[in-house]
Amino acid sequence: MKTLVRFLKPHKGLVALTLLILLIDNAGTLLVPTMLANMVNVGITSGSTEYILRNGLLMLGATAMASGGAVTGSYLTARLASRVACDIRCAIYRKSLEFSASDFERFGTGAMITRTLGDINVIQQAIIMTCQMVLPMPVLAVVGIILAFRIDYQMGLMLLIAVAIVMVLAVITVAKTAPIFIRLQSFVDRMNVVLRENIVGARVIRAFGREQREEQREGRVFEDYAQNAIRVNYVFSGLDCSCFFVMNMVEVCVIWLGGNRVGAHAMQIASISAVLEYAILILFFIMMAQMVMVTMPRAKACLDRAREVLELEPSIVDSADAKVPLAVAAPARALAGERDVVARFDHASFRFADADEDTLHDLTFSCRRGQTTAIIGSTGSGKSTVAKLLLRLHDITRGRVLLGERDVRDITQRELRARVSYVPQKAWLFSGTVASNLRDGLPDATEEQMRHALDVAQSQFVYDLERGLDAAVAQGGTNFSGGQRQRLAIARAIIKPADLYIFDDSFSALDFKTDAALRAALTQEMRGSALLIIAQRISTILHADQIIVLKDGEVVGQGHHEELMETCEAYRAIAESQMRGGEAHE
Ligand SMILES: Nc1ncnc2c1ncn2[C@@H]1O[C@H](COP(=O)(O)OP(=O)(O)OP(=O)(O)O)[C@@H](O)[C@H]1O
């Protein structure tokens, strides 16, 4: 509830206006039956045309209040609900950008999508239904019963008892059915996770002939959801018919008791229809409110899930004394006090939160300006983790990681990432154009700068595309080959001015000739910065100024290729295995 209040607060004017309009709608609705009764009881019985006309005009006014209020109220509630939903979605998205890799893993991509889209839709609908069906109910019930008492004491009492019984039944139904609706939302989450996995991995599923198995897995999830949805529909149909039964019974009672009261001259005939209308109106709103209330626990579950995301304290935050960030677009310049060392690992160790042992142990090495540092090691030795620590996507457990002379934890994340340019292992491009992707690296890049970056990244293939720099890029860059994607990701990284460029296994999909040409162009281009190249292929790092050999998260060798061939057993083993395979080309 606190979360909802927080998001309603900025719209308090709209909330107040919506409630006022709904009140006007209810007032109009409640006035009509009494006016109608008066018209018949007084106007028609006395034959006063003037009374009938005057009362008719007043009724017209009340009807206009009710219908105008209903239309405006619907518009305002829809507007309020969509504004609140939009604010929650934006807040979740903004929050997710603050998450470290492990924070994000706590929820998972599928669940984050459900929380941002499906869950917020449920909340949006709940706000609309609450405003239109639940909030008017107590007003209508209380005022309707008072008006019925004014018409006749016994009729009022009967209506009060009927409403009390229906309310008790409604509360029991809501309490009993709430868990089904909460379960329903968790099934939506599961469906989303399984569907996403199967759609993204559709080609792998086909390649491994796993269609039947995946179909069964999906079928089970859909089946669970369907079973729950059927139960929900049972509940609704049960509610529907019992409510209509109660309404009809109350109608019978009103007419029966009304007839008796008229016979006893305790009230006039047209008052029966007024009480009847109040009874139908109140019971109808109780029925609708009940239907909305059974879905409320689901909306609450959705709100709780949104709150979980919004209230999660990111595990990586800027320290209080971190310097004011530089503008991201500002060109990088020499880091104060350090001309030479751009980045340094100082006895750094790291352990994943869910791991039993350190992934990296006691790493000490520096990346220098104008030099290429390479990291090589077997699969899972911790190479990518080194890159992520430099970007502070994770925080080290012991030791220090420094940018220039400053610990990365004492720099704002914004400044840190403005000074480091990164090509991730999995080259990811955003949907748009080649140019828009390059502008992610440098927002105001000129065509000349883009062409230069493409040339350095050996991406001249772009010029052969029909629309050149404006060629369309599909989500993830799937309309390009793996090698083309890598080169475009490299172009995006090198167009950004930075002190440190990190290439995480970014040359793996390139042929040897392109790999060699790209490295030569990079070395030439990046003389003023430090390069950190993570690679599996010896040929990619052969000429690096310094090679770090990682084994099980430990540095087991450090030096030039020739030095390492002499002194490092692990390096020699990698080199020899690749030379046997004919990979180590210059
Ligand atoms: N989020 C995570 N949680 C727990 N352990 C992880 C996580 N990510 C990676 N690891 C583990 O950390 C170790 C190092 O992973 P890393 O990705 O750095 O290896 P790598 O040397 O880059 O491997 P590759 O060459 O295959 O890309 C691996 O053993 C991996 O299982």
From TrEMBL:
- Lineage of source species: Bacteria, Bacillati, Actinomycetota, Coriobacteriia, Coriobacteriales
Where is the chain membrane-spanning? 51-73, 133-151, 157-182, 269-289
Q: Where's the ABC transmembrane type-1 domain?
A: 16-298
Organism of derivation: Collinsella acetigenes
Q: State the superkingdom.
A: Bacteria
Pfam families tied to this protein: ABC_membrane, ABC_tran
The Gene Ontology terms for molecular function here are: ABC-type oligopeptide transporter activity; ATP binding; ATP hydrolysis activity
Protein's recorded name: ABC transporter ATP-binding protein
Ranges in coiled-coil conformation? none
Question: How does this protein sit in the membrane?
Answer: Multi-pass membrane protein
